[in-house]
């Protein structure tokens, strides 16, 4: 597995984006372009070959197409295929890393408290938590479709998407490379418990007690393994669910706050603004249009 490291001290440069939906049997055309392309599977399976590697893009998986590299379909998709796509440039030099380089890279990121201005995009990755990527793609498409934002703001939307993919990549890496302090099955069980109970008021002490760990020890090991505190992880998952509810329901901000276990609506709004740089209402208003294409 390879990863591309981008310096985002200058945001990624957005070109275009949309949602592709096939009609009948379909196979991706042969192309060689000068930009990067992120593809994110929504429905069906697309079969795309890049250089000598073949990839199956199914719902929840992402593929990064490299510039100046031939890509084409290697198999016909007989079912309906749908995916989001985004063309972009990097305004700064980038590096290609092997999986063996990731441990050192993540250690450096943790040492800097994840304040490094870099993103790491896998050439190909399948993710379990997909709703946030879906939401960010819709936000990106909407921002360029209505021209309500400057080019710089659209670049920031794209960079936010890349940062989210980076975070999910880091979590996937640590889930598959757990040490002996907390074994893999326990770690995955904790993440699943949080997912199931995300709409409740979750306290770190509740989780530590459930799995028979000292609170401070458990939180320290979790941070060592993932690069983030357990509280931050819980809040990230709650905000991810909040964004899904803002887009897909008519619940008021107060109702969403209540449904996600926040005792204080104002605290929820403050936390949302801190993480997303938008209020919940501003975020909700960002979604009305998606650019559909068939090619």
TrEMBL record:
Q: What InterPro entries does the record point to?
A: AraC-bd, Homeodomain-like_sf, HTH-like, HTH_AraC, Tscrpt_reg_AraC-type_HTH
Q: Which residues form a coiled coil?
A: none
Keywords attached to this entry: DNA-binding, Transcription, Transcription regulation
What molecular function does GO assign, one term?
Answer: sequence-specific DNA binding
Any one Pfam family match given in the protein's UniProt record, by short name: HTH_18
Q: Where is the HTH araC/xylS-type domain?
A: 188-286
Q: Which SMART domains match?
A: HTH_ARAC
Under PROSITE patterns, the record lists:
HTH_ARAC_FAMILY_2
Q: Which domain of life is it from?
A: Bacteria
* This protein's name: AraC family transcriptional regulator
Q: What is the lineage of its organism?
A: Bacteria, Bacillati, Bacillota, Clostridia, Eubacteriales
């Amino acid at each position: 597995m390879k990863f591309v490291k981008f310096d985002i001290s200058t945001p990624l440069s957005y070109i275009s984006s949309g949602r592709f939906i096939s009609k009948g049997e379909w196979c991706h055309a042969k192309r060689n372009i000068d930009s990067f392309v992120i593809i994110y599977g929504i429905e069906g399976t697309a079969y795309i070959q890049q250089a000598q590697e073949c990839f199956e893009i199914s719902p929840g998986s992402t593929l990064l197409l490299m510039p100046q590299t031939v890509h084409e379909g290697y198999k016909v998709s007989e079912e309906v295929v749908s995916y989001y796509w985004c063309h972009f440039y990097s305004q700064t030099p980038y590096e290609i890393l092997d999986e063996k380089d990731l441990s050192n890279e993540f250690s450096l990121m943790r040492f800097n408290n994840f304040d490094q201005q870099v993103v790491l995009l896998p050439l190909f990755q399948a993710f379990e938590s997909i709703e946030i990527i879906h939401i960010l793609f819709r936000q990106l498409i909407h921002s360029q479709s209505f021209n309500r934002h400057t080019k710089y703001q659209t670049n920031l939307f794209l960079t936010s998407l890349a940062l989210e993919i980076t975070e999910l990549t880091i979590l996937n890496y640590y889930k598959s490379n757990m040490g002996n302090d907390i074994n893999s099955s326990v770690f995955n069980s904790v993440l699943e418990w949080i997912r199931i109970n995300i709409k409740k008021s979750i306290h770190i002490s509740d989780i530590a007690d459930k799995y028979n760990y000292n609170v401070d020890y458990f939180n320290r090991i979790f941070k060592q393994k993932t690069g983030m505190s357990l509280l931050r992880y819980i809040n990230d998952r709650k905000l991810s669910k909040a964004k899904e509810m803002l887009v897909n329901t008519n619940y008021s901000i107060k109702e969403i706050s209540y449904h996600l276990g926040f005792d204080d609506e104002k605290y929820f709004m403050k936390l949302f603004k801190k993480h997303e740089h938008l209020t919940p209402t501003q975020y909700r208003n960002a979604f009305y249009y998606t650019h559909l294409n068939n090619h």
